[in-house]
Hints:
Elements: E1 4-9, E2 13-20, E3 23-26, E4 36-37, E5 40-43, E6 46-49, H1 51-55, E7 64-65, H2 76-82, E8 89-92, E9 98-101, E10 106-107, H3 109-128, E11 134-139, H4 145-157, E12 161-167, H5 168-175, E13 186-192, E14 197-205, E15 208-217, H6 222-239, H7 250-266, E16 272-281, E17 284-291, H8 292-304, H9 307-316, E18 326-330, H10 337-346, E19 372-374, H11 382-395, H12 399-404, E20 411-415, E21 419-424, E22 432-438, E23 445-454, E24 464-476, E25 483-489, E26 495-501, E27 507-512, H13 520-532, H14 534-564, H15 570-587, H16 601-614, H17 616-637
Parallel strand pairs: 1-11, 11-12, 13-18, 18-19
Antiparallel strand pairs: 1-2, 2-3, 2-4, 5-6, 5-7, 8-9, 9-10, 13-14, 14-15, 16-17, 20-21, 20-23, 22-25, 23-24, 25-26, 26-27
Helix pairs in contact: 3-4, 5-11, 6-7, 6-8, 14-15, 14-16, 14-17, 15-16
Amino acid sequence: MSKIVGIDLGTTNSSVAVVDSGFPIVLADNAGCRITPSVMNFSGQGVVVGEAAKRGRNAAPKSTIYSVKQYMGRRYQECTKDSRSVEYTVSAGKNGGVLIETGTAALSPEQVSAEILKHLKKIAEAALEEEVTRAVITVPAYFNDAQRQATIKAGKLAGLIIERIINEPTAAALAYGLDKLGDQSKVAVYDVGGGTFDLSILELTEGTFQVLATNGNTRLGGDDIDQRLVDHFAIKIAEAGGPTREQLTPEAAARIREAAEMTKIQLSQAESYEVLLPFLTSEFNFQHTVAREDLETLARPIIEKTRVHCRRAMEDAKLSPSELDQVILVGGQTRMPLLRRLVSEWFGCAEFEETRGNLRIGENHHHPDGPALNISQHPDEAVALGAAIQGAILTGEFKDVLLLDVTPLSLGIETFGGLMNVIIPRNSTIPVKGGETFTTAVDRQREMLVHLLQGEREKAKDNWSLGKFIIEFEEAPRGVPRIGVQFEIDINGVLHVLARDIKTGKEKVQQVRSAVDVDDADVQQMVEESVEHAFDDLAARRWIEGSLKAREIAKATIQGLKVCGEELDDNYRRAIEESVSAVQQTLKPEGESAGEYVGDWKKLQDQVKALDELTHDLAEIQMQKLMDELLGQKGLAS
Ligand code: AMP
């Protein structure tokens, strides 16, 4: 079956991706570029698309068409109100639609988009060395039916069969592997590219993403930050005795704009950047160093403008940030460190480490319960990659790959009696999260050993140990402390374990590599052993759990006899003593070998039941005594 490519047809940039041997990749053109500016130049010589067209924008502003996405499927009247101003001429078409005047021809937005799609189709065909006819194309979540239909039409004009139109945030979520989150997961996709900003809230239900709310601004993006830098440079140029804006040639103005974008991009990595623009005029060279802080001062007000849209979308979705599982960042502009910091702050995200894909648990996060801030090395490729994944799902190529991402064996911790307590069961699709609250078995315990286990056996010692760590908490009677243990396996298969004293919030984090990367033969052996020992294991678990309960009841009864023994009828007391002793006989042996000993569970169960019934009266007497004491104390006090 022929491949289905994924296409991100963006306002500023576009790209095409495909799943190749199970991996989604963005395809590069013959110059090695994986991102194509969504720019077309239509001159007498024919159509030029991409980087070459973008470069020619200053020389031929009237026939260089960009940001055409804003006109797709829209009426001319609507567009006049909210579209970005452009240098080419836009007019009303016959049916009230938009017409783009290129100087030599008038084209519909679909026709212009078709030229961009044809260019992407060629890139894909050259890279794959085969004809490409099928595609999945992405659109913003807020696109209405007319806008979607216009996109499909553009695809057809480009000679493509559009297999599916999917929402950009959904595509991004697919690329981040979020389709494997549990049902009911909620994510926010914060997408800021060159010219537009979108915030979408998605909920995963029954394996598909539903858009709960979207908000954004089609005239807000990275270009605005570039503009602030251009203005800043203009001041510096004037201060240095250079030309004023009016004196600049279009070519010089274009060089300043390019330098501004370059400065911004470099400052995402570097702390400072030196701009060098020789011969801005025949006698003026511009040289200026910009610190990251300077850029942040200029960019902050632009980024702050996105905040209100985030708030509105959250209100529409009726969600608070803590109800989100993830905030995923999409679009080239989200590489800016300041933007990441601000978004993380607004959504109360767990502190993030940039090198790790999934950032739920950090060493010292500020908001441990906040959503994860999910970033990738290539936020500007996520949408195309997601579209390619959708394409591969449609051809059936991606089924197995998706199924592979499951936990091969159960993960859990050791609990009372040396038993394994499963937190994430075997075969859970990753990423996955699970947790449980534990308490203490001994009075005045101050710490708990968290022993991480992997395997299918009931007894801790029969499973594989993945490590141990100690969590400390405040001293308290047994059963009072509450220790929350949370396991999370991220998309990379790395297990993050967090143990927290719920009372004080004190916590410990442990990262375990390769919770998923386990040798197949070992997994098979573990599963076979668990089947082979299933009956024994079950008997052991029942015995251990039953004996823990029996010991507790026996201990409480002996304590009761100590306190109220004298008030009991002799026969009754003797009967209880005998019953306790019978339980203790069955429980034997105590001490060293107790861990291995598996006694008669049924016999023990019957004896415990008998003891329980027998001690009803004792319990009542004990209760009465306690009440009397309390009332007596009150009487004394008053
Ligand atoms: P997109 O439409 O997703 O390709 O995003 C394009 C926007 O991202 C443009 O404004 C770029 O200047 C900006 N951008 C790309 N790379 C970076 C970077 N490393 N740091 C900051 N902004 C960037």
